[in-house]
Write a structure and sequence with these properties.
Strand content: 15-25%
Number of helices: 13
Number of strands: 13
Structural class: alpha+beta
Radius of gyration: 34 Å
Distance between the termini: 31 Å
Helix content: 40-55%
Order of helices and strands: HHEEHEEEEHEHEEHEHEEHEHHHHH
Strand order of the largest sheet: 4-5-10-7-9-8
């Protein structure tokens, strides 16, 4: 490896037909370049999508009341279940698996709306009653003012937080909404904050068109004293969301005399399942990208193998002379293998550097999210060091594999027949 004559011989062999060598090297370059860009782009898309879960507790469970579908304990089917403050207290006191529990109320029911107005401006928006703990469940960001605090809940203050879209409709451009008054179904509330979601898409749009008031204030202002529409529950770190979901449903079904196998009495949603599905999807995408990239890289390696076969044919007499003067099969085989590894390594390293550089340029061109804006669906494209080293290792192995057939062909040439070749 450190013999200068050996390096000069390899250079002479590759430089003999520079165009052919460059085209062969480009096949390897393109294969590793494409692999790096595909993996980096997949990571960028994954970062953008999973950023929607930023600030959210993925081990959270949401449960809401419905109608029973089966008779139980002498009670008929079709009963409408209603949660109460006592259910809230029972979940908090009887389940050690619960870390955070947030009772919730909403005007108009799920995806319903209420009339919200200010002077001549009016609109229909989602209005929910929340406790401060909801911030540990949902990815909400206060862009102006403050969030609901415990004192608001204790004193039943008529204060409200509004989404970005509500602010745009009810307040004039440049007008500070903090301290302003709004009416929700005729009840006056004072705006103490403006908030948004860290998520993107439909969820972000829903948050932008919503209003939050203290949970207790909602109960007294909108005839919902003692009522809870649904719960958001976060489990302890060591508790899975599935286990938490089973414990919460079992307790609530027992309290409201619902058949254990009745799937309609109480609805539930497990956020961890959704998160795991997304992670599984991107795992599949990464595997697909590796397959596509390695396929392109294999095409380049096959090109290297074909070119070296031609080189061996062209150097038949030279190889025969070397064998005749005592060159061992391993030395001949080693030279061809080394040429293949060198060609693929240099071209592949160039492709790796070019791919990483392109990803860095793309990342630099993506504008950072401004304050109050939604995060991009494509963020921080790039590959980690492990993926880069793995790609480089695959590259070296592919070079060795590409040189196996030409190297074996070289040592299979009989010296006498090689000397007779034209």
């Amino acid at each position: 490896m450190f013999d200068l004559d050996h390096w000069q011989e390899i250079w002479a062999a590759l430089a003999k037909n520079r165009l052919r060598t460059l085209l062969t090297a480009f096949g390897v370059f393109w294969g590793i370049f494409l692999l790096v860009v595909l993996l980096g782009s997949g990571n960028g898309l994954s970062n953008g999508v999973t950023s929607g879960f930023s600030g959210m507790a993925t081990n959270s469970v949401f449960v809401w009341a419905m109608r029973t579908s089966k008779p139980y304990a002498g009670l008929p089917a079709g009963r409408r279940i209603e949660f109460t403050d006592e259910d809230w207290q029972a979940l908090a006191s009887q389940l050690d698996e619960v870390e955070v529990i947030a009772p919730r109320l909403q005007l108009g029911g799920w995806r319903g709306g209420a009339r919200v107005s200010r002077g001549q401006h009016t609109g229909s928006y989602s209005v929910t009653g929340e406790v401060p703990e909801i911030q540990r469940v949902q990815s909400l960001v206060v862009s102006a003012g403050r969030f609901v605090n415990q004192l608001d809940v204790t004193e039943r203050r008529k204060v409200a937080l509004i989404g970005q879209r509500v602010r745009e409709v009810l307040f004039d451009p440049g007008e500070d909404p903090i301290g302003g008054d709004i009416q929700i179904n005729g009840v006056q509330f004072k705006v103490v904050g403006v908030y948004r979601s860290r998520q993107t898409g439909r969820n972000a749009d829903e948050v932008a068109q919503s209003v939050i008031v203290p949970f207790s204030s909602f109960q007294t202002a909108f005839n919902a004293v003692g009522k809870v529409h649904w719960f958001a529950v976060v489990g302890q770190p060591q508790v899975s969301a599935k286990e938490l979901q089973e414990k919460v449903l079992a307790l609530l079904k027992s309290r409201h005399k619902i058949a254990p196998d009745d799937r309609r009495g109480i609805g539930s949603f497990n956020l961890q399942e959704e998160y795991d599905k997304i992670q599984g999807l991107f795992t599949g995408i990464r595997i697909l990208l590796w397959i596509v990239g390695l396929g392109t890289l294999a095409a380049g390696a096959i090109g290297v193998s074909n070119i070296l076969l031609i080189v061996v044919r062209e150097r038949t007499k030279e190889l025969g002379i070397r064998r005749a003067v005592g060159a061992t099969p391993w030395s001949v085989r080693g030279q061809i293998l080394f040429e293949a590894i060198l060609l693929t390594s240099v071209a592949g390293l160039a492709g790796l550097v070019a791919g990483v550089a392109l990803l860095e340029v793309i990342a630099a061109l993506i504008p950072p999210a401004a304050a109050g804006s939604q995060p991009s669906m494509f963020q921080a494209p790039g590959i980690d060091a492990g993926a880069g080293l793995l790609a480089l290792a695959v590259l070296i192995v592919s070079g060795a594999v590409a040189g196996l057939l030409p190297a074996q062909r070289a040592v299979s040439i009989h010296p006498v027949e090689a000397l007779r070749a034209d």
